[in-house]
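Could you help me review a protein record that somebody else here produced? Here is the record exactly as it was handed to me:
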Amino acid sequence: MLYTILILHSSVEGGEAAERAGAVRFVADTISDGIRPHSRLEFSPDGRQIFWSGYVIGEGNTEWMFTSTWRGNEWTVPEIIPVNGGLGNGPALGPDGDRLFFGAERPLEEGGPPYVGIWYADREGDGWAQVQPVEATLDTTGFAGRPSLSRNGNLYYLVRGSISAIPAVARCRLESGLYLEPELIGGALGGEIVLDPWIHPDEEFLLIMLDSDLSDQPSHGSSDLFMVRSRSDDTWGPIVNLGSTVNTKHFDRSPSISPDGEMLFFIRAVGNIFVESDAHFYWQKWSQIPRSYVE
């Protein structure tokens, strides 16, 4: 219920949006002002802080990590997260909200060679402690980023490099406090060029984005949001398009669901190139998506 209150008070069209199907632009005058979002929206467990990454309009293609806090009936002006100099992609919180994960390319030590991978920092007072690597994810080539954590701490992320020649979803299981070597999510996703993964807290399903030019899956536009369910034998499938109440002829990307399970968030961008397009966060009630798609 808290998320519903915060969202309706901070959406362009307010409470009227809850009464009809279709996506609504979220916080137009605050977090989208001067910033093109480029990762999903991540909520703190109490719903009062949000995290994402994106590009500052007019300042090149450097991806920065941002945060905003619900204060005084509105979201604060975005601030750069003071971790890794603010540089990184797809900030995500661990299950208790006290560990921040993100993708980045950086050395293990000053002056050393750079590694791509998933990194993290723990909350320390009002700030964050020193950045540490998830060592199992480190690679000397390619890309690793857009992490998403399940309730038990398992790490899902986007990878391209030594373990996959094309963008794919990998999982590192958490056992006894350590992350095991990554394993690719196969099944129906095998061979698909997958972007923007988000894992359900209980690992019931993944939300992903597929590009219509690179996939044979049915599509409504430039890129669509899809669901892929996990099976009891640890395989995944089928791939299901979330339908026309969410997907449009434009770019629809970077899905996530609020911690209470009620709200779907994603980026919609209007234009010919995603990064250079007019991009904003949108939300829609999860219950408004036809049950035939998600059950």
